[in-house]
């Protein structure tokens, strides 16, 4: 067990829209903000008084600004998320959704907020049947009812200290003044150019002059700045049934296809009544205990918490844990995820996360990779003695081709010890490719996360008002009731394996947190082949192939962000050193 201690929290009191700190105690006050301070992009930062890690320097700076002005972790997380909507608009935005896991230091409790998109009321289990996946990706049909704005409002109302208007301010500044186009933004725009040009609004915004903005140029989004300003003024009602909502519905039902485009763009089913009906929801977190630590995650409709949790329980039941065991535990947990987890009543969450079930599943892990596919288990409370271990992998070629680098994750902690782990997404990189005309943001295509079917009994078939199963896994670990670690990643269903692998690296393979994030990755999701980065193959490929594993190359898996509580108030914020161009970790104060 890793034991860390953390300083006691203070309470923040909101008075008339400004934040007062109460009462002053021995905890160091943050330094006054220096207007012209130069802040560089670095993947690791250590210090005190609060910390943030995102994939992007502007977003991390937005969070830091809020923290330094007395805001708490929730305030800062929303500010960072809104800024990512400007600078990482292909991964995040106000028309997307996400999941927040939040540790409330004052009450010592973990909460979650589900801001997942919903299917329109007119959607049935057959609505996506027979539609080619690639066609659904760029369509009005795949746009879910956006959850992010409702989630931001709920998070700020329940746990924040500033208004939505205040939280949007840093993002408005970045959208107005512009940000510097980096290689990642350029590459993502170029990869999407063929479909962006098929929509007049998207081409006008992201292909100025017909091409992606050049690396090093300044990219402004005044329409998004205006949208955020109005959102701050009118509140979420403007979207959930008001004028902005009407514009979204119009765009979904009648996408602004460029004249002459030959793309078959299916219209969506969304109505203003679907927007009116949308609610962000507080849900109990998932929790498992691993070597004495409490690992909290996101419950359904995300499969993140249950799948990471089940795999950790399986690993805990094994005498030794290495990369082979990591892959096998993940394989088994994914088999159960596929059969049992979705936005349906009766997900057997308690049993999926029980030690008895984990022990039964762990029995299947032998010296060699198990046969593909691993069957789902029976999380029924009646657990058998250990059966004979399965053996012999069946080499096949197919792996899930659909998972890309989409989505983003951020972590923030504040001087009081509150912690936010937040996954936000518009699903595909570039969402459905359709910018709402004049508004400066892309729509999501989250409904492609449903199983298209026909698939009788699949818990993830679409349905009216249903939330597609997610893999997002914002995770907070407590030790003795105090924060120890918070982490998460983008990457579709590889999110789960990235979070799991980082925890295995940190706790079982003796790596520091920066090493655990930088280490080469592999992802086994009950597929015939394990996808792996080249450096993972170089390091473990021969050994694992000899044990029956079979691999396919995946050039880059995940883009994690994390923070570790090192004890005595010291924080270590960590981002990727190189994946997705590297992330940005910042602390409020490098010295106590
Ligand atoms: N759209 C990515 C996920 O929800 O897992």
CATH C-level class of the domain at 14-126 and 401-434 and 450-589 is Alpha Beta
* Overall mean confidence score, pLDDT: 92
User: How many strand elements?
Assistant: 20
Query: Could you say which small molecules are bound to this protein?
Result: glycine
Largest sheet: 13 strands, antiparallel
In DSSP terms, counting alpha (H) and pi (I) runs of 4 or more, how many helices?
Answer: 17
The CATH topology label of the domain at 14-126 and 401-434 and 450-589 is Glutamine Phosphoribosylpyrophosphate, subunit 1, domain 1
Supply Rg. 23 Å
Strand percent estimate? 15-25%
What does this structure look like?
This protein has 592 residues and is an alpha+beta fold. It has a domain at 14-126 and 401-434 and 450-589: Gamma-glutamyltranspeptidase, small (S) subunit (Glutamine Phosphoribosylpyrophosphate, subunit 1, domain 1, 4-Layer Sandwich). It has helices at residues 57-68, 73-87, 133-137, 148-159, 164-177, 183-196, 200-206, 222-234, 243-253, 272-277, 304-316, 323-340, 349-352, 355-362, 494-507, 513-518, 534-546; strands at 11-15, 18-22, 44-54, 97-104, 109-115, 179-180, 218-219, 281-283, 286-290, 293-297, 408-414, 419-425, 475-479, 482-488, 522-523, 530-532, 551-553, 561-567, 570-575, 584-589. The strands form four sheets. Strands 3, 4, 5, 8, 9, 10, 11, 12, 13, 14, 18, 19 and 20 form a 13-stranded antiparallel beta sheet that branches. Helix 1 crosses helix 5 (164-177) and helix 11 (304-316) packs across helix 14. The longest helix has 18 residues, at 323-340. It is globular. The relative contact order is 0.19. It binds glycine.
């Amino acid at each position: 067990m890793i034991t860390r201690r953390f300083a006691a929290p203070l309470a923040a009191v909101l008075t008339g829209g400004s934040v007062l700190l109460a009462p002053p105690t021995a905890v160091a006050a943050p330094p006054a903000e220096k207007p012209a301070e130069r802040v560089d992009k670095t993947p690791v930062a250590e210090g005190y008084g609060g910390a943030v890690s995102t994939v992007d320097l502007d977003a991390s700076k937005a969070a830091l600004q809020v923290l330094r002005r007395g805001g708490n972790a929730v305030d800062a997380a929303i500010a960072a998320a809104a800024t990512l909507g400007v600078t990482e608009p292909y991964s995040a935005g106000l028309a997307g959704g996400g999941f927040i896991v939040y540790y409330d230091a004052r009450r010592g409790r973990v909460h979650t907020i589900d801001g997942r998109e919903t299917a329109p009321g007119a959607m049935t289990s057959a609505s996506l049947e027979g539609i080619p996946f690639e066609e659904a990706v760029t369509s009005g049909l795949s746009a879910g009812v956006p959850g992010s704005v409702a989630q931001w409002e709920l998070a700020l109302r329940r746990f924040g200290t500033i208004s939505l208007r205040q939280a949007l301010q840093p993002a408005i500044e970045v959208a107005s003044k512009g940000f510097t186009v980096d290689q990642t933004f350029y590459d993502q725009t170029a990869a999407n150019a063929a479909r962006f040009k098929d929509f007049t609004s998207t081409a006008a915004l992201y292909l100025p002059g017909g091409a992606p903005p050049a690396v090093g140029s300044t990219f402004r989004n005044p329409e998004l700045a205006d949208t955020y300003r109005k959102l701050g003024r009118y509140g979420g009602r403007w979207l959930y049934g008001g004028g902005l909502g009407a514009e979204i519905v119009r765009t979904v039902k009648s996408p602004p296809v460029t004249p002459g485009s030959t793309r078959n763009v299916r219209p969506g089913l969304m109505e203003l009544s679907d927007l009116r009906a949308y609610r962000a929801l507080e849900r109990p977190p998932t929790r498992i205990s691993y070597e004495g630590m409490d690992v909290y995650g996101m419950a359904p409709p995300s499969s993140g918490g249950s799948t990471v949790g089940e795999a950790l329980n399986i690993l805990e039941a094994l005498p030794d844990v290495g990369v082979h065991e990591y892959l096998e535990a993940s394989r088994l947990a994914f088999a159960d995820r596929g059969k049992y987890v979705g936005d349906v009543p009766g997900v057997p969450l308690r049993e999926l996360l029980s030690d008895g079930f984990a022990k039964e599943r762990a029995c299947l892990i032998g010296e060699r990779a198990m046969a593909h596919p691993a069957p789902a288990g029976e999380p029924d409370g009646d657990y058998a003695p250990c059966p004979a271990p399965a053996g012999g992998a069946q080499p096949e070629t197919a792996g899930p081709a659909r998972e890309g680098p989409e989505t983003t994750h951020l972590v923030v902690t504040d001087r009081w010890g509150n912690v936010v782990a937040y996954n936000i997404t518009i699903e595909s990189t570039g969402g459905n490719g359709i910018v709402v005309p004049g508004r400066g943001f892309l729509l999501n295509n989250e409904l492609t996360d449903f199983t298209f079917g026909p698939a009788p009994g699949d818990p993830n078939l679409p349905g009216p008002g249903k939330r597609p199963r997610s893999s997002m896994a914002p995770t907070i670990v407590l030790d003795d009731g105090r924060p120890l670690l918070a982490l998460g990643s983008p990457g579709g269903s590889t999110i789960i394996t990235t979070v799991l692998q980082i925890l295995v690296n940190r706790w079982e393979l003796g790596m520091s947190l920066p090493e655990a994030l930088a280490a080469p990755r592999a992802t086994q999701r009950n597929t015939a082949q394990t996808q792996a980065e080249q450096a993972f193959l170089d390091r473990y490929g021969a050994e694992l192939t000899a044990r029956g594993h079979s691999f396919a190359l995946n050039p880059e898996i995940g883009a994690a962000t994390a923070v570790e509580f090192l004890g005595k108030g010291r924080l270590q914020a960590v981002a990727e050193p190189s994946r997705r161009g590297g992330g940005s970790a910042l602390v409020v104060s490098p010295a106590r």
